Structures are given as structure tokens and as C-alpha cells.
Amino acid sequence: MLPFHNTVADDFTEVNDLIIRQLHSDVGLVENIGHYLIEAGGKRLRPLLVLLSARALGYQGKQHLDLAAIIEFIHSATLLHDDVVDTSTLRRGRPTANAQWGNAPSVLVGDFLYSRSFQMMVAIGDMDVMAILSNTTNVIAEGEVQQLINAKDASLSEAGYLDVIRKKTAVLFAAACEVAAVLAGGDATVRAELREYGLEVGMAFQLVDDALDYKGDAETLGKNVGDDLAEGKPTLPLIYAMSRAEPHERDLIRHAIEQGDASQLQEIVAIVEKTGAMEYTLNAAREAVSRALAKLTLLPDTPYRSAMAEVAQFALARDH
């Protein structure tokens, strides 16, 4: 666990127990894959933001635990589906579920996690919560389809890229914070500000994630370096590098994107560094974190608010 998890350590323990209980199924393969994915760990930032946001607003009940588990199930479902679409073989330092069991079981267990999350939403019985989370899952699906369409498109603009990461990543961070505000009885202003905080944290998280694909290592990242390039994903480091590179360098990057070819990864990493594309991407993440921190000023000055600030800063400073 990271230091900011300790602020809600008891809540987090209860959420983990709840997740295990809710993974129960009469079908053994469902439980096996579900447990494999959940027990791989991860940073659990999205459920953490539910817990911190609720507590920061003075919430004293227990339904924030259910919401945290719901958010984690939605996220886990997207991971299962993503790894199939991307034909990924490594996540969180372990073989992906599709590498272990195959594509069909991974997709179907992802569907199970989605449907289980909606069963849990119904049990909470709050239409605002259901509206936020159903809209969010819809937007995530749109973002994933758009990313698929954009694959191997070397002409993608920075605006187009930012729109995709907002949909496929940032909106779930935003929803995690907003549903907590709903649960805590926050007014429209509180809901909007916390949603924007979550959105900016999510944007920073994905920007850094995309930068790490060109500067990290597989052991630290828990995934294969260069995966984005091998999948033909035109992320911001490449988009910016192409706008500043020499013609032959631009052609090299364009070819790699269009062919999904990571064989010249080191040459492309050198171009990304030389053109300032890495710093440009990280600076965009810094600006997102700065906007996120500004949204926290409406919250009381408590350890929960401090932890939320630490989460935002971690999204920027992380190396995995």
C-alpha cells in the first residue's frame, strides 16, 4: 500500500473483503479469473478516491464501501476487455488473464464483473449514482472504440488523443469522486468540483502512463515497454515528436505507428527525447495536477483532503 492508503486503511480492508465476497459465482472459472485479476493488486486509486472523497465530505455510513467495490469491478472489467483487444500478454508484472485462459473466458468474465457492479448499484438504490455510473461505462466503451479506430492512424491530432484518454480513463476517476459526493449529500457545486478533480487526476495518470511507455522498463512498469507502439497507438509523445522532428524522423515514427512496429523502439525513444516530446507530455500532466489541486480548496482541511492531494501528486510522480 502507498502512504495515502493509510488514511482510510480500515475502509480499504473492508472493501477488499467485500470484493472477494462479491466475486462469488457458481461457475468456478468466473471466480478463478476474477480472483486472479483482483489479487494481482494494482494501485487501486479509483476505489481509493471514492473512500477519500466520501470521508472528506464527512460521510459516516457504509455505502461508500460498496461504491468503491463497484468502481473497482468496472475498472477490472475494462482491463479484461482491453487486454483482449490489445492482445496484451503482461499486466501488473504477471501474464494477463487472456494469456492464461484465452480471449473468450476473459471477455465473458469481464461481462460478469460489469453485471455484478450493476447488481450492486441497484442494491444501493440511488438513481443519481446509477445515472453517473451507467453514463460513465457508456463513455468508457465509446472511448475504447474510438481508440480502436485511431490505432495505426499517424495523423491523429493532440485534441483527438486527449478526447480518447478523457473517455477511456479519466471519466472513471471523475465518477469515483462524484458518486462519493452524491452519497455524502454534496450540492451541485461540490459534485462538479470533485468530478473535475477526478477528471484531471485521471488525465494526468494516463498522460504519465503513455510517457512511461517510452522511458520505463518492463520490470518496474509491470507491462512490456513499447506495447503502445507495437499496437500502433498514436499517443502524445509520438504526436508531439512528429510535429517537431526532422522529415526522416517523422517518417520513421509514422511508419512504426502505421505498421504497429516496435522494432526501432530505441531510435524512436531518442527522437521523443530530442524533440522535447517527453517533457511536453509530462508538462501536460503537471498542468492537469495543478488544476486538480485547485479543486480541493472547497473541502475542509482534513487528512482526507491531504491524501487526495497526495494522490494527484502521485499520478504525476509515479514510475509504474
From TrEMBL:
Keywords: Magnesium, Metal-binding, Transferase. SUPFAM superfamilies: Terpenoid synthases. Its cofactor is Mg(2+). Transmembrane segments: none annotated. InterPro entries: Isoprenoid_synthase_dom_sf (IPR008949), Polyprenyl_synt (IPR000092), Polyprenyl_synt_CS (IPR033749). Belongs to the FPP/GGPP synthase family. This is Polyprenyl synthetase family protein. It comes from Gilvimarinus algae. The lineage of its organism: Bacteria, Pseudomonadati, Pseudomonadota, Gammaproteobacteria, Cellvibrionales.
